[in-house]
Each structure stands twice: as C-alpha cells, then as structure tokens.
Specification:
Helix content: under 10%
Order of helices and strands: EEEHEE
Distance between the termini: 31 Å
CATH class: Alpha Beta
Oligomer: single chain
Largest sheet: 3 strands, antiparallel
CATH superfamily: Medium-chain alcohol dehydrogenases, catalytic domain
Number of domains: 1
Number of strands: 5
Number of helices: 1
Radius of gyration: 16 Å
Strand order of the largest sheet: 3-4-5
Length: 108
Amino acid sequence: MLGGQYDESYTTDNGFGFEELNLTELDIPTPGPHEVLIRMRAASLNYRDLVILSGLMPIEIKFPIIPLSDGAGEIVAVGQGVTRFQVGHRVAGNLQQRFFAGNPRPGY
C-alpha cells in the first residue's frame, strides 16, 4: 500500500447485476515488479462492462471485480523493472492490445 492510503471504487463482490454494485473503500496498492499504479482521471462504463455485470460475458469471472474497461489517467508510481513509463506519464487502458478489427480470435 502507498502509506496506508485508500480510495473508493464501485465493486461487485459476490454476483452479477447492478444491485450487486457497492461503493467500497480499497487500499491503494504498491506496484509490484513490472507494474504501474494509475490514478484514474476519466472513466466510463462501456458495453463490455454491462455484459459482464449482466452475467452474459462468455468468460470466467473471478470476484471481486471493478467493472472498468475504459479509462485514462496518469502514472503515480512504478514498480521495480519498469523502464518504458515514468511517474507523470498520461496513459489510457487497452484491453486487447493485439485486436484491431473483425471477429476476435482465440487468445485475444
């Protein structure tokens, strides 16, 4: 953790459905090796998040989850071995780095 700090996130701990979303206090983690910690500055629920919350996504879901597929922010801490990013860099998430268009293939 970063000095015992915490933040709030909407999580679902036990099941599917919007009624399962709870505002939860979470410890802010310290990044491990080859990880970065991002302070989210903008976030939105997208269709993927809605499908997951509805229980219709054909993948195994391990709870608890934070339904957040789209967002942007800045790096506030880096773990050991991180070389391509620095504190202060602005970043946006991308769930499928190798998928550009068409029907997804296995492994994407």
